């Protein structure tokens, strides 16, 4: 698999570290309930179709949000997490 | 036998090799298969299950019978297809699955028991008694299983891997592939043309029809001349594309040097090719017919016989019968006759077929059975109502052609059935970016293949945004393809489908009868298509037999799933470069060589290598050196390298605010020139890592991490900075490799540090202070921190000066009665003090467990704060860090042992905790341990049993605080 790092261009998957769903960008605020934290930490959708996942491009240190299809494995888009809306 | 004046072999270059020890004469350009045929060797292998004698059946990678082993020992390669192995002087070829020899094989006795060995035999027989499963049945089956054997010796590390990128990947170099490559190349696309064979050209090398007024090989040569002269084309022969993967990625196995004596070149190379567009022009594979006795040596595919006669100038005998259901079979008769071989009969399954040749012709006829033992002698033929015997050495058979849709089906697309050609073809764009052309696309005449290759080439050119430049199409053979179904002939005797796994039509019918009616079930029940050839020649025929047995059409029956690889790939090729240091590269610290010079044994720490101790002459075991080094640090001064620690700089106006988010304690309040110990949690509330934070200036911090967690912490910091706090203004950078770092510890450490600094006054630092200084003009960072419990410093210097500083530190340390210490002593020193490593921060422990709950700030939010406060992570039920000392005459403590109440049984139910780190403390003259113990902080003074069931060690221990030495830290603050 190849992903496109917005800094460096198309790169082999071996240069990236995966970190699962992009929902971890939506961190609950300090006073959140235990349920909110449990959702944030443990509960994940398993979509058939578009999924947003986070990858770290180790050589340049950029975290990116990759939109890809879990059905076709097509990589649809990639952008820095700084620009991703939680 | 060899045919005079035919073939593309080089008769000026004789080559000799051995087959089962017998010297075989061949010519350059021969394969092992063609050379064996030239020498009239008919039995080339024994079948898997019944050890039936088998002969050459095909001329390509679909060969089911002629599997051989090449080379011996480290160089041995089993299950090499003799049809693919080119001969070279001295090549050593051995036949397989026979004992003592190919023609006298004891295993053939299995054939007598074949009525008992039908499909499902294993499932039904090896059920009971249960105790026999592992001890009797499995060894028995394992011994009988497999064709070639591994030598048992480690293979020479002789393969490589490589990566390639292109606009257009063309798979196969027959008329369609060549025309597609030419079209794409002329338009300026970057083209890779991959061909499995040793020579480009596909069927054009094996047929006698002209193309553009030239012979097939001549025309191929002219196209290749143009392609190889173009800078944008890479022509790869001996390269089998083995699998299609996501995003236009293809695996390909190149047989780099298997066609010549072993030399410096790699044996094989496994390629990963990324292509924008792919044209699958892999051609078609001819299929046989399942009829009684069809596995007799001498029965072979009609197209393969043409290949042997036309390309290599060899024939399996003096006479041949041709039997088929399309016009392509008639070409075999024509070429045989022109080569001087007697055509004893031509049989065409089509009742309305005609022939142009001067031979006995039987339209609408069929072959009923074969005769002969180690080779074909005669055939029983039916024509109309008449049955008669035809005496012949060879039967060339064709049941039609199966387009090679394997690669088109690798990522989920199912092939579709076409009634008009009685075959499966790929659906439209079966793999994103892939187009299928030529015979692989169900087009079986040369002119049609050329036109389809041109079409596919232009589609690819347009898709990548180039202008098309269509080459002219040469005149070529354009016979229409008319076929009648011809799958099997039922009769007395076994009719074989999968020749490698000995699957018969009867086995498939038995599967259907026992309700294994789907292709996937039938495959697993009969093992049809599960051999090294993956049923290339037999699967579709087996599906047709299954369809007939279940009353369904072939179209409705469908296929089994095609999976990579298309041909067997050696593990050594697929994993090339990933053994030993390729798997785990070595990371050396700046002073590595200097430590090795001192005779220090190295110990692996992740990918790093660290000195475990520095032996002096007379020291016989590591403990002697380790104890001495510990005493040295406690009494004078020791120096050790800590460059492997992760070092991260955090810069910017918001750096302090950011560090407050990632550390449990407050870092923004740290004064410039000060260092603070810090603890990082994971969001789930467990400890991630610890380390120090030093503030070099108002907006510049330098962090250390543990060696093991350096990469994880870097990722984590970047995640928090970019993903959770994108509004903060800061930058992070890893400087682990830029700075060498050395710890100087002991009562005389200050004297040592002062003696080497350009300005000795800079060495007068308060505990947990830091400063920038210089040594011989080189800027260094000095930190007054301690992991030993002694007064200590760490000095960081740019990596290229690391070794020089190490030597300088050692020289000065020795003058003060000190010296170097290694990882073992470092570990003892920290256990005496109860300091942590990842043995304690084990991924399950919390700050509370470690007794560090006081470091969790109540005034601010930080990663892990909310979930560290979960009820289950606090309180008496938690296993808490404690120190242990043996009581009485204990032999030793061990790490990983369990703790039980004194007098309690050492059972899982009674388990109270476990030890994490242990050491012999020369300072305190006792063993010391660190352990997690349920409610441990409230149990100081209690006695427990420590039991190590694995090493059979038991000791009575007393619980105490983790810190066993200098609990007030007076020495450290010094």
Automatic annotation (TrEMBL), chain A:
One of its GO terms (molecular function) is sarcosine oxidase activity. Gene3D superfamilies: Folate-binding superfamily (3.30.2270.10). One of its GO terms (biological process) is tetrahydrofolate metabolic process. Pfam families: SoxD (PF04267). This is Heterotetrameric sarcosine oxidase delta subunit. It comes from Silicimonas algicola.
UniProtKB/TrEMBL annotation, chain B:
The lineage of its organism: Bacteria, Pseudomonadati, Pseudomonadota, Alphaproteobacteria, Rhodobacterales. GO terms for molecular function: sarcosine oxidase activity. GO terms for cellular component: cytosol. GO terms for biological process: tetrahydrofolate metabolic process. Coiled coil: none annotated. NCBIfam families: soxA (TIGR01372). Keywords: Oxidoreductase. This is Heterotetrameric sarcosine oxidase alpha subunit.
